[in-house]
TrEMBL record, chain A:
MF GO annotations: rRNA primary transcript binding
Designated name of the protein: Ribosome production factor 1
One annotated Gene Ontology cellular component of this protein: nucleolus
Gene3D superfamilies: Probable brix-domain ribosomal biogenesis protein
Record bears the keyword rRNA processing: yes
Region spans: Disordered: 1-29, 47-77
Compositional bias ranges of the Basic and acidic residues kind: 64-73
InterPro entries assigned to the protein according to its UniProt record, in alphabetical order: Brix, IMP4/RPF1
Record's keyword terms, sorted: Ribosome biogenesis, rRNA processing
Superkingdom: Eukaryota
Start and end residues of each Brix domain: 118-301
From TrEMBL, chain B:
GO biological process, alphabetically ordered: maturation of 5.8S rRNA; maturation of LSU-rRNA
Compositional bias segments (type: Basic residues): 251-269
GO cellular component terms, semicolon-separated: nucleolus; preribosome, large subunit precursor
Annotated segments matching region Disordered: 186-289
UniProt keyword Nucleus, yes or no: yes
Protein name (record): MAK16 protein
Comp. bias (Acidic residues): 192-209, 217-228, 235-245
Domain Ribosomal eL28/Mak16: 3-116
Subcellular location: Nucleus, Nucleolus
Source organism of this protein record: Crotophaga sulcirostris
Amino acid sequence: PAQQQQQQQEDGGGASATPQRVLFPPTFSVSEIKNKQRRHFMFLRWKQQQRKEKLAAKKKRRKEREALGDKAPPKAVPKTIENQRVYDETTVDPNDEEVAFDEATDEFAPYFNRQTVPKILITTSDRPRGRTVRFCEQLSTVIPNSHVYYRRGLALKRIIPQCIARDFTDLIVINEDRKIPNGLVLSHLPDGPTAHFRMSSVRLRKEIKRKGKEPTEHVPEVILNNFTTRLGHSIGRMFASLFPHDPQFIGRQVATFHNQRDYIFFRFHRYIFKSEKKVGIQELGPRFTLKLRSLQKGTFDSKFGEYEWIHKRREMDMNRRKFHL
Amino acid sequence: PQVVWDMLGNKQFCSYKITTKTQNFCRNEYNLTGLCNRSSCPLANSQYATIREEKGRCYLYMKTIERAPFPRRLWERVLLSKNYEKALEEIDENLIYWPRFIRHKCKQRFTKITQYLIRIRKLTLKRQRKIVPLRRKIERREKRREEKALIAAQLDNAIEKELLERLKQDTYGDIYNFPIHAFDKALQQQEADSESESDAEKEEEEEEELDKREFVEADDSDLSDFEDMDKLETSSEEEQEEEEEVEKKASHSKSKGKTPLKGPARRKRPYIEIEYEEETEPASKTKAA
């Protein structure tokens, strides 16, 4: 091909000494050149050409749009992953009766009917390291009515009956690996579902830039975003049941669980309404992201538990447009 | 014997020997103490004994001169009993007339082995950490996806939007004094007078107003019944302000009646469930309430 090029250059450039437009055979592609330098150079040139063409096309399109004026067709909506999401059959329809009935009779019903007040027990795996301990403390300030207890080698199965006896409604276990928290087990106690999450990008309060002061004792509001499917719904209710039902608006604090593409982002803010259309938020409190790994029907039992949902990597990570929460 | 030791011990190379700064170790599996010494080298001693354990049972291995030319039958092994004292007696029995050093070291080794076996058995009863290997590719993939999800989430915007929505739907009651908001609502509803839907709404509102009017009068008199006095005071102040503004602007009588009524009426709302919300169902929420 190099020889062909040269020949054609000589042929075409008979009139001018410098080759202006080199003619390549139609099936030639830049990747066929064996010489790396030359190939790189040709590729860059090709790229520049592409960019120019793209720019020209854009300009043309914009001119056409302006020329049409009002009659211009509406702008095309860019495709995002959320737009292209594979439709999940278990998506909850807000008016679905079956769902409403289920929710009225599931394990969170007493909470939503205001019969129980949440009382949370936060603990860690064995021998927690500094970061995890601090994270637990901060978490306990965020969630009202929560207590941190250290686990000195106690088996979870034995803790659970004791907790139920002492009227705890939820149990949070933060698993630690190499001095950083990396897992969260959230168990609703009187025989409720257990969710096991993978926790990542944990930021303690001092690591958050421009943070505010400490969270006060007021009960925060809860925002749950984007929990669309049945599974997402139940997880959302689990999160909601951690916080007492009546938020104190004087506190102006809000805890957010935002689900995006199966990642649940937790943030804790203080808000202030500057005017009607503007609100300012200031982040205080820890932040972390969770990814659901499994949901068990009963309380924590790794061997004999009945799993409602497990993240199966082979099947579920294959499709980039399919999400489960 | 001595010859072997002269060669291997100091002068030449012994493949079992490991030298460190302070000590010489012997890697031979039949070694009694683990150190490289004249007295504990199994190669240099024609009469030697060791304790080794296999699958939780201890065996006494013995080597004698008679069997030196038969490497396959060199090491004779005896199973020791599980009982500690009995096993010690068995060692003594088997190694009777043997040098003191070997007997002593054998018993020491046996003691240590039984101790660590006991420890293993105790530990397996406790909970053990299951070590799960991380897959690098998967970790990287998850991390990347999380970053992209974070960017796509636009958390701050989402939270602000949600809070403004809640403000619009009066979930906060009368804490925030934005009279313009109530005004706009009232004005909009006036403009939609001619439509039938709004008529129906108006009728409902009127009915509500009537009910609430009665309500209001009763409430205003019974201030002591309310739990949060502070809120009441502030809201009553706001009511007064609103009333003044309303009078100044000289608007419709309906709106006049509306805005001050909204105060106590709104107070009823915060007791209704507000937390569990999704972005898809704002309208149904209020209806359910």
